[in-house]
Design goal:
Elements: H1 9-26, H2 35-41, H3 46-57, H4 59-69, H5 82-100, H6 107-118, H7 123-131, H8 138-163
């Protein structure tokens, strides 16, 4: 007999299935594709699109996050809307997925690491974030940067060699 305070076996199985779906949603092929595909996949709406997909394809996880992060109390910060809270909750869950499976191709750790580097974060800070599952390792980020730069360099070189 399952008490009301615990998850049933069916609910646990549903959550495990939905976590696998969430891992698939968080793999946007940013790391695997070409530099152009990475550029096209990182859009301002990437997080909202993932939030909508989770709501549609992972209803139980969506309801759990909603129960955890949304409250009806009015606080001083009017910018923390319910949609903003859900977005933050889902991003946190995505980072947890990276902690759960370090081999997952999660775009959140890459995007967050790139964001930190763009604001001037150095090797030690990025490696500290990596130890918490929030970013990729510094060396991995540098290899990705190098590969993207080389692809763009070769493409530019090819374009300009046509006109010479």
């Amino acid at each position: 007999m399952v008490s009301e305070d615990h998850l049933s076996g069916h609910q646990k199985a549903t959550i495990k299935d939905e976590i696998r779906v969430l891992e698939g949603l968080c793999n946007t092929n940013i790391r695997d594709g070409s530099a152009q595909e990475a550029y096209e996949n990182i859009t301002p709406s990437i997080f909202k699109e993932i939030t909508q997909a989770v709501q549609e394809r992972c209803p139980l996880i969506h309801e759990v996050i909603e129960a955890l992060v949304i409250s009806n109390q009015q606080k001083c910060n009017v910018y923390k809307t319910n949609s903003h809270k859900m977005l933050c909750g889902l991003q946190t869950l995505a980072f947890m997925g990276n902690i759960r499976n370090s081999n997952a191709r999660n775009c959140f750790s890459l995007i967050f690491g790139l964001l930190c580097i763009s604001y001037g974060a150095g090797k030690q800070f990025i490696d500290m974030l990596q130890s918490m599952g929030l970013s990729l390792h510094w060396n991995t980020m540098q290899v990705l940067y190098y590969n993207i730069l080389i692809k763009y360099y070769l493409k530019v070189q090819l374009i300009f060699s046509i006109y010479v």
